[in-house]
Write a structure and sequence with these properties.
Elements: E1 5-9, H1 10-15, H2 22-31, E2 35-40, H3 51-57, H4 66-82, E3 87-90, H5 101-118, E4 123-127, H6 133-146, E5 156-159, H7 161-166, H8 172-179, E6 183-188, E7 190-192, E8 202-204, H9 213-223, E9 228-231, H10 239-256
Parallel strand pairs: 1-2, 2-3, 3-4, 4-5, 5-6, 6-9
Antiparallel strand pairs: 7-8
Helix pairs in contact: 4-5, 5-6, 6-8, 8-9
């Protein structure tokens, strides 16, 4: 496909899953001339079967998985440091818009995770989708205040336009303009909205869904956003072909700029 950079899931490497030995994986990528530009961390116990289940189990929200997720973050931070990464992204979970215990606890935990990675010079990015752009921006600003004077890098956003559609959390172009100052990485992914409220939308090949790619890239250019664009394809029967189509889409958008 001509792709020379990737984002890599850290958890399979951390756990030493079959086929994912750290040294072997990195040697294979380097041997192919592929640079790892960022890492991704998943949270224990996340259930994506329905919108309701992921709202309940996603990210750092559940008390029952917080300690294990914190321990995993410590190990992932060490791994990311060994790999020379400067960015790790993850889903924070549904951050409540209104103030209250749940929001306070979540922001406190997110601050702790940011510091875990920040102590090793690694920035974190929360992936979009599980809350509106306005709620996420407010949370980021509140985290800035909580971590003021600390050594942790400023928390950013891994912007996934398809997730805004999948979760029904607003227009990706408007959200990109709202969050532009915090975007540290972009996922190239597309989706169509759900036909009924409360249900998942559907991920589709980039360029065939509801994302206004010209408007989206225009919003990034207008705001001066410069970051890695990472193709992500989590569904479908022809993922290699779909990833290639997404890569070509980015090329066309660049030519039109």
């Amino acid at each position: 496909m001509g792709v020379r950079c990737v984002q890599i899931a850290l958890d399979p490497l951390r756990r030493g899953e079959s086929g994912w030995a750290e040294g072997q994986t990195i040697d294979a990528l380097r041997g192919a001339g592929i640079e790892v530009v960022s890492g991704m961390m998943g949270m224990e116990g996340e259930d994506y079967s329905t919108l309701e289940s992921i709202a309940r189990t996603g990210g750092v929200r559940p008390d029952s998985t917080w300690e294990s997720n914190l321990a995993a973050a410590e190990e992932n931070a060490q791994l990311a440091s060994r790999l020379g990464l400067r960015l790790v992204t993850f889903h924070a979970g549904f951050i409540p818009h209104e103030s209250g215990r749940a929001r306070t606890v979540m922001l406190g935990r997110l601050g702790v995770l940011s510091e875990v990675f920040g102590r090793r010079g690694i920035r974190v990015g929360f992936e979009t989708g599980q809350e509106s752009a306005d709620t996420l921006l407010a949370a980021l600003m509140e985290l800035d205040d909580l971590m003021s004077g600390g050594e942790a890098p400023r928390v950013g956003v891994n912007f996934d336009p398809a997730n805004m559609i999948l979760y029904g959390m607003g227009d990706p172009v408007r959200a990109a303009r709202r969050l532009a100052g915090r975007i540290v990485q972009v996922h190239i992914k597309d989706a169509v909205p759900a036909t009924r409220s409360g249900e998942w939308g559907s991920e589709v090949r980039a360029g065939t869904g509801a994302v206004d790619w010209r408007g989206f890239f225009g919003a990034l250019r207008d705001a001066g956003v410069e970051c890695d664009l990472v193709v992500e394809r989590e569904a479908g029967e022809h993922r290699v072909e779909d990833a290639r189509a997404a890569f070509e889409l980015v090329g066309r958008m660049g030519e039109e700029a």
